[in-house]
Amino acid sequence: MTQLLVIGLTLLWLIGSSWVSDAQAVADREKLLSDPGIYGTFAVFALDEEWGKQEPSVRIARLAALKGVVEQHREHVAIDLYLLRGLSDQADLLFRIHAVELRDTQEFLLDLSSSQFGKHLKTAGMMHGLTKKPNYAPGFPEQIKADLKTVSEPGEKPYAIVIPIQKSAEWWGLGQEKRAAMMQEHTEATLPYLKTVKRKLYHSSGLDDLDFITYFETSKLEDFHSLVLSLENVKEFQYTRQFGNPTLLGTVQSLDEIIETLAQ
Amino acid sequence: MTQLLVIGLTLLWLIGSSWVSDAQAVADREKLLSDPGIYGTFAVFALDEEWGKQEPSVRIARLAALKGVVEQHREHVAIDLYLLRGLSDQADLLFRIHAVELRDTQEFLLDLSSSQFGKHLKTAGMMHGLTKKPNYAPGFPEQIKADLKTVSEPGEKPYAIVIPIQKSAEWWGLGQEKRAAMMQEHTEATLPYLKTVKRKLYHSSGLDDLDFITYFETSKLEDFHSLVLSLENVKEFQYTRQFGNPTLLGTVQSLDEIIETLAQ
Amino acid sequence: MTQLLVIGLTLLWLIGSSWVSDAQAVADREKLLSDPGIYGTFAVFALDEEWGKQEPSVRIARLAALKGVVEQHREHVAIDLYLLRGLSDQADLLFRIHAVELRDTQEFLLDLSSSQFGKHLKTAGMMHGLTKKPNYAPGFPEQIKADLKTVSEPGEKPYAIVIPIQKSAEWWGLGQEKRAAMMQEHTEATLPYLKTVKRKLYHSSGLDDLDFITYFETSKLEDFHSLVLSLENVKEFQYTRQFGNPTLLGTVQSLDEIIETLAQ
Amino acid sequence: MTQLLVIGLTLLWLIGSSWVSDAQAVADREKLLSDPGIYGTFAVFALDEEWGKQEPSVRIARLAALKGVVEQHREHVAIDLYLLRGLSDQADLLFRIHAVELRDTQEFLLDLSSSQFGKHLKTAGMMHGLTKKPNYAPGFPEQIKADLKTVSEPGEKPYAIVIPIQKSAEWWGLGQEKRAAMMQEHTEATLPYLKTVKRKLYHSSGLDDLDFITYFETSKLEDFHSLVLSLENVKEFQYTRQFGNPTLLGTVQSLDEIIETLAQ
Amino acid sequence: MTQLLVIGLTLLWLIGSSWVSDAQAVADREKLLSDPGIYGTFAVFALDEEWGKQEPSVRIARLAALKGVVEQHREHVAIDLYLLRGLSDQADLLFRIHAVELRDTQEFLLDLSSSQFGKHLKTAGMMHGLTKKPNYAPGFPEQIKADLKTVSEPGEKPYAIVIPIQKSAEWWGLGQEKRAAMMQEHTEATLPYLKTVKRKLYHSSGLDDLDFITYFETSKLEDFHSLVLSLENVKEFQYTRQFGNPTLLGTVQSLDEIIETLAQ
């Protein structure tokens, strides 16, 4: 009982404490999350079979190592965490990392993997993409451009979905003009969902075996489902070779929430 | 011998006991199983190699943990259990979970996986779908609409089959009218089996790598086989990219029956 | 030396002994193997890495458990055994089980997996099919119908081959008449091999991810190879999406022969 | 030091010794390697993780078991060995076995797997094919027939390559005449390489999930590469569904060379 | 503390020391990296789960074994190392090996795998290709030939990308002339990136399940991404069956840098 109390207090202290000044980190984070020319990495991990067999005190010590590594690298890279366990197959955690250089991301992941916590992680997937200025939007009618400025409703968006996409070779052979026309239809289909489904696009060609990584946040999964149905109905969808496979569905979590969940 | 007796009595007590009031749970369960806008999750698990090597008394203690987690969450989510072992490859158990929010399902599965029983579970698959009002039925001829009201024969339906489905991009490109015509033919093919094969449909697009999850219950597997053959013969089947893969075949079991089987 | 003698004698006794009356079992077995409306299950297993490391006496004790489970269920289900080890990849044993209800098959496989022997088995595949009266044969010319009555030559047929088959969606869309014409050509191609290659067909649609399971026995593998070549040359083969994958090749073995081989 | 000396001497003795008379075996071997109607099996194995952790003396004892099993079966089957480790993914050893009956091959592989050495082997692949008289060559022009009699240059051919092949359903539907014309073009493309690349063909349809196994030996890998390029350029290649996957590349080794390499 | 100091000093000494004369090795290395008729092997490895659990002193001893094997073979083969961990899924290290004979590469990899370090390596992939004089360039217009002589900018190129490629059967059936025209368009698309993206091509047909291995080095990943996008837009891309799968992305590292990273 006393031991459990000590563990509980340690966990509370662990969740509360923070090793770096947050002000600077937050400023950089905003730029990393909104600028073009930033590399986004989706690192998917499964916890090994040993994790569940550890004593609570051991688990908390290892989660402190996770916290340490994340805090230490937050000065250079923006790190978001998602809990996949209970919603996706065979993966438990997703790290989304934004960095100016992929080497910075690699350094974070190397430190993570050599940490006491990292020894329990098995890499289940790794995707990289680049943020870029919109390709086709500049040529869209003014009304669509205006509609695209719709800001998503404030409030928490607890669900995150990642859908990797590869276009067919035929798509790339269509030429810019035909692709732009289809992308306009695609964009129109998304307009009704701008308020409740937040989106972000990463360009992947050459960085991994994808063309795009699409990232979504929502509090209304049914709206997200309707959005995907709408996208399946437009002509551009015929030129999609891979859509998902895997689709990653998880919940957005703070580092402290993840620690609390995994400590159990 | 005395030890076996103790274990047997513990098992009997375990199967008999129940920690929550059933009345409220049952009421919610009816709504969760019949309303549109409900999320259905199919969580497929394999028992690890350690399970078979545990002492009976240890196994029963862990099955008590399973019972505890299921009973605790039954207030918020509807949980059905199926035994796949002996009928499907490499998976042993299927949980079908209905919830108003997928977060509630995630919480149940997180508690399950961190329980003493969950440490023996390896996730073999995870599928999510949404229940919706019929898409095409409102436009069908009156006779079909009337036929569709056929209630399945009472009595136990021991077999359950889950078939995940992904339509081709071509299907989505056909337009609503052509799809409705084909779905009418599809529906007509199912009418002769309404009495002996119970069906339920979940819409998945965007929630995982499927478009639909089809769920069946029957006591006459031969009728179910004939139903599938009929569906393979209609035009709509040409637009199916994935049908099964995996097809999950199991037997419907109560929590107590599962516990009894796994205790052996 | 004395220990080896004891083990040898135990093995001899194990192979000789039998716990159930054989007469009734054999009678049922004939019906299960020839009637339509019977479910055939092909359960494929690999032995785990621990098996080879067990002491001979331990192995024999576990093989006694195998014998016990098989004998106990032979009253309800017909069980055939095949040795795949040394001829197929990554699987060692094949059980072919015929039953009136798949629940009976599940019960046998559950008892097998919870037995001391079953703890060493990893499921590598599971296929189910239904025996049915011939679909197309009633419309064939009289000569073919007569030829089809050819009985296969007596004598042992040591090799067994299982080829799972899935037809293309196009096949099902052809309509019954066109399919019947092609099946006649298919059947004619098989006539020269009726004497040396024994065949049995199972219908799978909906029970797993197949349409058919084809089962063959022969003492002349070269004839079987020529038969498959002939079938590849007929038009119906163009409508086959999956042929094999896996093809299972093994030798027909009695329970005692299997026990003797695995005891080594 | 003394222990190492003992191990070294044991290894030398092991490599030198031979338990069966070679004369008869060699005679049979010639027939098995040149006659039609012979079954060729390609059994691919990976060494388990335990192998590298064994003491040298233990490894040598187990390699003696390998030698024993191979020598014992060489009277009935022709056994060739290849070292894949360092050239192919995830497989270390390839056994090519020629036998009059696949049962003899199975018996060898059963004895191998139950030997002290076999406990370290994991089956990574198993392919079977039948040697047959040439299908199309009898109808070729006399010049090609004459050219085909070119004997490959004497001298060691250290590299061996195995390429499994499956033809498309379309190929089999072409009819014998069209296939023969294309095979003539295919054969002409191979003529420049007859001197430096030795070839052998096995027919697989029905025995596994292939139509052919093609086996090559060469001392000039660049010539072999050019030969494959030439074959990719002929029309018949358009009708190939599987070419490789896996392509196995290794070095031809005597049993003693394999033992010496694996003893380290 | 003292122990850590000793380990640190050992690591420093390990990184500094070198067992062979570098001058000769470097000379051969230049030829191996620029001549046609050289075999390039890409050997991809994952570290096993034991690696992370070793004491630092044990790890350093095993990394000394790695250094020893690499230094010993550098006289015969050119060895480049890349760190994939943190950027690619499920693989940690990539060795690129150039040799006059693949047997020399095999000997290096055999020594590596039987070393104390190699016991921790699991082979995740193995690709072989041959360097050849340009196929199509001799027929290109003079301007392109001149442009192709552009030397890449000096300075470190920290990122390396390996993309395996398989062309469709249709590509090989086009004939040399049509292929040359398309390859000219392909080449033109690459010209703007010659300064910032270094490229090297390996011909694989027959040596593994690929036609080409393309290797890239760059300090500007965004330029590399744009290059791949340009290549996806030319007609030749329509004849590509496999592009990546896997795409390997890593950082170029010296042996000492790898040792330093893995020692942590």
Protein traits:
homopentamer; 264 residues; alpha+beta; Alpha-Beta Plaits; 9-stranded antiparallel sheet; 9 strands; 25% strand
What would you note in describing this structure?
The structure is a homopentamer of 264-residue chains. Chain A has 264 residues and is of the alpha+beta class. Chain A has a domain at 137-249: Alpha-Beta Plaits (2-Layer Sandwich), CATH 3.30.70. Chain A is 40% helix and 25% strand. Chain A has nine helices and nine strands. Chain A has helices spanning 2-16, 22-34, 56-73, 102-114, 142-147, 169-173, 176-190, 221-232, 255-263; strands at 39-47, 78-83, 93-99, 121-130, 159-167, 197-203, 212-218, 240-243, 248-253. In chain A, strands 1, 2, 3, 4, 5, 6, 7, 8 and 9 form a nine-stranded antiparallel β-sheet that branches. In chain A, α1 runs antiparallel to α9 (255-263). Chain A is elongated and about 70 Å long. The two termini of chain A are 16 Å apart. The A-B interface holds A 49, 52-53, 83, 85-90, 158-159, 161, 163, 221-222, 224-225, 227-229, 232-233, 235, 237-238, 240, 244-247, 249, 251, 261, 264 and B 37, 39, 48, 102-103, 105-110, 113-114, 118-119, 123-126, 128, 130, 169-170, 172-173, 203, 205-209, 211.
For the sheet with most strands of chain A, the description reads:
9 strands, antiparallel
Written as H for each helix and E for each strand, in order along the chain, the element string of chain A is HHEHEEHEHEHHEEHEEH
Percent of residues of chain A in helical segments? 40-55%
SS elements, strand count of chain A = 9
Mean pLDDT of chain A: 93
CATH class of the domain at 137-249 in chain A: Alpha Beta
Radius of gyration of chain A equals: 20 Å
CATH topology (fold) name of the domain at 137-249 in chain A: Alpha-Beta Plaits
N- to C-terminal distance of chain A: 16 Å
- Total helices of chain A: the number is 9
β-sheet strand percentage of chain A: 15-25%
Assembly state: homopentamer
Which structural class do the helices and strands of chain A define?
alpha+beta
Overall spatial form of chain A: elongated
The CATH architecture of the domain at 137-249 in chain A can be given as 2-Layer Sandwich
Protein chains sharing the most extensive interface:
A-B, 35 and 32 residues
- Weakly predicted, low-confidence segments of chain A: none
